[in-house]
Each structure stands twice: as structure tokens, then as C-alpha cells.
Amino acid sequence: MPRAKVARKSTAIDMTAMCDVAFLLLTFFILTATARQPEALPVDTPASTVKFKLPDVDIATLTIGQKKVFFGVPGQPIRVRTLELMAEKYNLQFTDEEKLRFSLIESFGVPIGNLKQIIALKGDDRNKEGLQPGIPTDSVDTRPSELHNWILSARYATKELNNVDMRVSIKGDSSEEYPQIKKVTSILQSQNINKFSLITSLRPTEK
């Protein structure tokens, strides 16, 4: 008995709904994503095979390169409170607008006496090479260095606002000389900070 032939039908699928979903997801990611800010002090970090993601909050970053030290701490309220504590220590006044602009700066490296000029600049102008000489790391007349006071003020601000102890990470250039690194670690140890993270770039593991 002959087999009955089944008529072939079109297998076209309506992709309109899927395209709409994909477009909505793309729009969502574009609107919610934040652009990566250019680094104030670009450094070539040493390679490592260790995989450990640093937290995004309550951790300060000390960037060391070209014999300079830059300082940054995440969180706009923490930055504003840190600036207020430093202003009290050095008898300086910052306007509300200056505090707001400072809260948007991820990392900086100038003496506090020149901080107002850096705050007033736009982001691209602020990050021009050679404009920021680094935060002073040497003590003056037995007084702690400015870097010491920045770290201490950020610790107080983090404890006051978030009720946690601030962690510290060091992002050093692979070609940086040891004395500069030693100077920074000595400042940390003077505040009983004997445990900190070293930021490195990922090196492929050998097979």
C-alpha cells in the first residue's frame, strides 16, 4: 500500500518578540553601565597567578609609580568625610561644591595645599601627565606625613560611616624602586596596618 505524502509546511519562526527582548536588555546594560575612568597614575603591575577579587567598598588603594604615591578610596560619602577631616587637621576650608567635585575623584596625588586647584580642573585636564607630583610621604618637623594623615582620616571616615575597618591595597609599578615601596609600608605599619593586599595582573598558568 503506498505511503501517504505529508505536505511540507513552512518552518519560519517569528523572531519579533526575541528581538524586542534583546534590544531591551542591550538598552538596560548601556544605561546602567559606568564608563571606566582613566587612571590618574598608570602603572604596570607585576604578574601573578593568584586569583582574588578585591572588594568594591571599604578599601583604600595606594598607587605607587614614577616615585609618586596616589591615594583613592571608594564611596562618595567616605571621600567627602575624609576631606572634611583633613581640612580640620590642616585648617583649610572647602565649599560644598568642592566637596562634591572631590567625591567624584577616584584617585589623586598632590599636596593638600594644591588640592583646590586639582579639584577645580576637569577630569581630562586633571589627569595630564606630570600635573600631580604625588602625595608627600616624608614627615616634617616630627609631624606625620600627608599620606599618613590621608590614610588615617579615611580609616576614621570608614569607621564612622560604615562601622567597619578600612582595608588597604597597594598597586605598585613593577619597575618601582624598593625604597619608595618601603616608605609606604612603613607608614602603614606606623598605624598598625600589617596586612594589606597587593594588586597584580593575571599571569597565565603554565601547563
Compact summary:
This protein is α/β, with parallel strands linked by helices and 207 residues long. The chain has 7 helices and 6 strands. Helix 2 crosses helix 3 and helix 2 (76-89) crosses helix 6.
Short descriptors:
two-stranded parallel ribbon, alpha/beta, 12% strand, 38% helix
Explain the overall architecture.
It is a single chain. This protein is an alpha/beta fold. The chain is 38% helix and 12% strand. The chain contains 7 helices and 6 strands; from the N terminus they run H-E-E-E-H-H-H-H-H-E-H-E-E. It has a 4-stranded mixed β-sheet, covered by helices on one side. A two-stranded parallel sheet has the order 1-6. A hairpin with a 2-residue loop joins strand 2 and strand 3. Helix 2 packs across helix 3 (96-103) and helix 2 packs across helix 6 (146-162). The longest helix is centred in the first third of the chain and has 17 residues, at 16-32. It is elongated and about 105 Å long. 23% of the residues are buried. The model has no long low-confidence stretch (mean pLDDT 84).
